[in-house]
Amino acid sequence: MGAAHAHPLYLPGTSPLHRARPQCKIAATLLFVLAVVATPREAFWSFGLYALALVGLARIGRVPLATLARRLVIELPFLLFAVFLPVVGQGERVEVLGVSLAVGGLWAAWNIVVKGTLGVAASAILAATTPVAELLGGLDRLRLPKALTTIAGFMIRYGDVIADEVRRMRIARISRGHDPRWIWQARAVAASAGTLFIRSYERGERVYLAMVSRGYAGSMPVLQDLEATRGQWLAALSLPAAAALVAATAWGVRP
Amino acid sequence: MTPVPALEVDGVAFAYPDGHQALYGVSLQIRRGERVALLGPNGAGKTTLVLQCNGVLAPGAGRVTVAGLPVAPEHLKEIRRRVGIVFQDPDDQLFMPTVAEDVAFGPANLGLRGPELETRVKGALAAVGMEGHADRPPHHLSFGQRRRVAVATVLAMEPEILVLDEPSSNLDPASRRELAEIVTGLDITILMVTHDLPYALQLCPRALIMNGGTIAADGPTAELLADADLLAANRLELPFGFDPTALGSR
Fold first, then answer.
1. A55, A151: one domain
2. What is the Cα–Cα distance from B43 to A128, expressed in whole angstroms?
3. Whether A26 and A79 share a structural domain
4. A115 and A205 share one domain
5. Are B120 and B76 in contact (CB under 8 A)?
6. B114 contacts B49 by C-beta, under 8 angstroms
7. Is residue A220 situated within a structural domain?
8. Closest chain B C-alpha to A133 CA, distance in angstroms
9. For residue A158, what is the nearest residue in chain B, using CA coordinates?
10. What is the span of the domain harbouring residue A239?
């Protein structure tokens, strides 16, 4: 029952990165990404430093670089958009391999590609070293509204259950000869979606009943004790602090 | 002086908001430490009765008391601690990210924290033989394991009475036997709602038969199951080839 891998992004381990408090890791990742985004796009050297820092981080967290590279694929759809910018851009143009490209567009595309890749890589390292339950606990500690983290928790818990239901409904459909090839055959699929909605809604009611029966009175109890020490915060924030320094220097030495 | 019964239902009647009358004056008593099966066809009102016991539904008439405490809005928290319901689908019952957090949900709602909470969680998981799975997400467990964890989530609240709703449904024979061993090993009052008549006979010395919103029969399980006319009148059927009299009295 259920999918075999509920947390496909998490790589179990005991590295210092795995043991770090989730709220520290989340805050560090966010601040690191902000520093990267704030860096002027002309400062090539600073992006090299950021990339080196992430490679080092992946090493510490025992995240294989090949795995990390595979996970970067998720940003491809966004990069496709960037590819068009130099072609459709206005203004000054240069010839590259016989194709006329806009200089402004090239800069914009570079900006998106490098900052996007660094951001996705940082998030991928976070996801690879932090179980989902801890991520939610960390977001709680960071004072994200409890209702949001609770909803996210339910989504993760029931995603597999609902996906399983979808799979069973699909098998039941094709077992009765349904072979959707054309858009007008989508009716059965749409009806399944409706049924799925009703079933999930009813499940929601049953889950609520089970919660109430165990004393739920409107707020989820705080279970994890994820207190982080000053030292843990300092260690985690050293990365974004260094990144901020690099960004500031890049602005300072800008011609 | 007779000891206070674990559960006392007295003349309870209930109609759903849509007008459907589900219970017509149900009365029953369950003594402390008893294991009682609640049998009856679909739509007999079994689940409705169970939800009266922990105050999720409030009776239109009559009263329910749990170990002497009346089910009333001002006692709901304590009532829900005293009545532990294990629902039929463990996926409805296990909603937290990990097994340990799910088992901790109930006692944490009661205000337990720290080492005390941890002891409860460990004890409850040990009682169902799942202590090795504390940190796993529920959807990684087999169905039988999930049902056992669902039992642990309720045991962790140290209830007066454990209500099991169709505990053997969807279990393979081995999981069914394992659950039976766990249930018989618990020193606790149990009300077991089921269609599985052999399971009722195996686990519960006493049975209640419900039909049409009333209690149709109340007596030793072996006797009730041996009464073919009674079973037929209440849409209950023994599995093919099963002879309750062949097992002897329990």
1. no
2. 49
3. yes
4. no
5. no
6. no
7. no
8. 6
9. B95
10. 16-139+226-252
Identify whether residues A230 and A204 lie together within a single domain. no
Does a structural domain hold residue A49? yes
The pLDDT tens digits of the residues spanning A197-216 come to 999 999 999 999 999 999 88
Residues A187 and A132 occupy one common structural domain? no
Q: By the CB < 8 Å criterion, does A157 face chain B?
A: yes
A196 touches chain B (CB under 8 A): no
Whether residues B95 and A209 touch (CB distance < 8 A) is answered with no
User: Are the CB atoms for A109 and A86 separated by under 8 Å?
Assistant: yes
What is the nearest CA distance from A171 to chain B, expressed in angstroms?
20
Chain A: closest CA distance from residue B143 (Å): 7
Sheet strands side by side (includes B61-66): B21-30, B7-15, B61-66, B69-70
| B157 with A214: Cβ contact below 8 A | yes
Amino acid at A51: A
Catalogue all structural domains in chain B, each as residue range(s) with its CATH number. 7-240 (3.40.50.300)
Give residue-wise pLDDT tens across range B171-209. 999 999 999 999 999 999 999 999 999 999 999 999 999
Q: Does A209 contact B at CB distance below 8 Å?
A: yes
Distance from CA of A217 to the nearest CA of B (A): 8
Is A217 at the interface with chain B, CB within 8 A?
Answer: yes
Residues A67 and A130 in one domain: yes
In a domain, A8, yes or no: no
Query: Tens of pLDDT along A93-111?
Result: 887 777 888 888 889 899 9
- The dihedral through the CA atoms of A201, A206, A211, A213 has a sign that is positive
Is pLDDT of A7 > 70? no
* Residue pair A207/B95 in contact by the 8 Å Cβ criterion: yes
Of A2, A214, A224, the CB nearest to B106: A214
Residues A30 and A95 in one domain: yes
Contacts of A223 in chain B (CB under 8 A): 101, 104-105, 108, 117
What was the ipTM of the complex prediction? 0.82
Amino acid identity at A142: L
Query: Would residue A9 count as lying in a domain?
Result: no
Looking at the fold, whether A113 and A24 belong to one and the same domain comes out as: yes
